[in-house]
Specification:
mainly alpha
Amino acid sequence: MNTKTIWWVLLLALVGLAAAGLYWWQRQVQAPSPVVSAPIAIAPPPVAAPPVASAPPAIAHPIEAAASAPEVTARTLPAPDQAGSYVNDALLELLGRKSVLTFMNTEGFVAHLVATVDNLDRAHAAARLWPLNPTPQRFVTISSGTGTLIGAENAKRYEPMVGFVESVNSAKAVALYRHLYPLFQHAYEQLGYPGKYFNDRLVQVIDHLLQTPEPAEPITVQLTEVKGPIESTTPWLRYEYADPALESRSAGQKILMRVGKDNAKRLKAKLAEIRRLVARG
């Protein structure tokens, strides 16, 4: 094959290739291949995790009856609704009949003590629920050029009660408390605290009372304003602290400030001793 013939063959081959390429391109434009979309994966709905049961709050200061004195734990504790006379007899045995009759209100003692403890770090602690008898005589005040002051004689009203509190054997009292603890716990839950631990609350309130300030004496007080045409027949029960910072204190702290600085220190010492026996750490 001569050179001229070879060139013609190459030229025809190129034309054929070009024609074939044009044909393929036209086919793609006129009749495009359908685009097959990948199937969309639909995720299954999330499976809700099973609810986690909330753990009961940890007990900071557990009280175990087994730690009580053997002669106390050997007794059988009655049911809460049948324990009134049992508790009364236990108090008489621990404190003596004269002291109990003089200073204590044993009617509904367990429920009243629990309610009083729970209220002492609040604004109001109803006197009708106190497990102690009211202090005799009236609140003593004196007048001065700066206003009405708590009289120095007022502290003497509380000295018999403070002396009684100091005379109680703390170890024996706490042993009895441990033995009776199921009754206190039941009363606390009945008060509206299911699942809460009364001894933790007791320690919390003791800590609060130990933080009571010791204001300089004498302390200025004033009568609470009562609006209305009827005058109070017991105005000595209406005194409040003139200093707003003192008046804003809790019911328990205001009681400790009212009994006088020396009496307050003696009561705080007893509270600290009780705390060491009922608290862990």
